[in-house]
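Subject: for your reference before the review

Hello V.,

The reviewers asked for a structural picture of the protein, and I figured it would be easier to keep everything in one thread rather than splitting it across files. Below is the amino acid sequence we used in the manuscript, unchanged from the supplementary table.
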Amino acid sequence: MVNPGPSRTRPADRSGLTVIEMLVVLIIICLLAGLIMAAAAIITEQQKSWSTRNTMRVVMNLLAGRSAVAGGYPAAVEHPLAGSAICAAGRPLYMRAIGGAVSTTGEALMVENSTWVAGAESRVLKPDDRFDGIVVSQDLPFLFGLRRSQCSILGGTVGIGTPAVTYPGITSYRKLDRPMPGRATFSGGPAYGQADYPDPQHLVSPTGEDGSPERSLETVQRRALEIAIGTGGLDELRRLRCIQEDQGTLILDRRAMVLASDTSPQPTWSPGTYRRADTRWQRYRLRGPVLVDGWGREMLYRSQPSPGLLSAGKDGVFVCDPGPDGIISSSAATVETTRSADDRNGMTDNVTTDPP
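And here is what came back from the structure prediction:
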């Protein structure tokens, strides 16, 4: 009988991963998932920017086509939350570009030279006035620091209806061309009102919202867009999902509204919100059909010196990003040149039709 020799023990077969190996695999999976999510977020933001640029291209092409028939591009109209009409809280707040407040009471005046309306210089609207807020300073970071000439959208101007207190409208100012020869100022000061200037040509306050459906802000806005880009163009923009037509509860003196899903105020600032009197933040939507960018916020439109569109981009502000605390430390008059505390430059991600 042959001796098989000393027996050899075989190591036990490994039927699975060790705990350490499993942890390593999980860590790798988590890292890969994080990288994929980060890449997806970047792509999503890029898609919003691409979508905005595509919308701008389509809108400008539509405007160009209509202008060839109408003989010119449509004029820009005041942004509803930065208009010249007096509402319950007065007019929106502005500051002079060189410093100093603009009056929020008394009818707004439009004159070439503010010295012509002695005693009422603070009521004069100037293109380079800087937007400061709706009711209190810095309560709308979206427009904060923009020049008055930039606070405009594509659509219809709506003026004071009847009664003016109930239906404040958006646009209302008295336009005085030039004093009579030999005079340095206008007569009728410091009121410069209807008693001295009854001629309608001196007053820019079109009949607008008065509670009737045919003269509501929504109706005027829709008709204006149909005239500017055509009914077919409006339908095309709806298909691109760059027209916002929300319905909701009216707020902010009937110039904007809040959707049912956005009624809960937020403790800190986020894009697309304004600061309420209780210092909390509330989402808003402009009324009627409005052009919006890839982030769902209204796009601004200008007609001078050349037609163009402007989006606030990812951060939701055009000039000054207040950061998560919602506190803007710069002055509206100096925000483009001086930023203090945690203010960040909001102009870096703006999307515009202007050439680079």
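For the response letter, the relevant points are probably these. The longest helix spans residues 19-70. The two ends are 96 Å apart (CA to CA).

Happy to draft the paragraph if you're swamped.

O.
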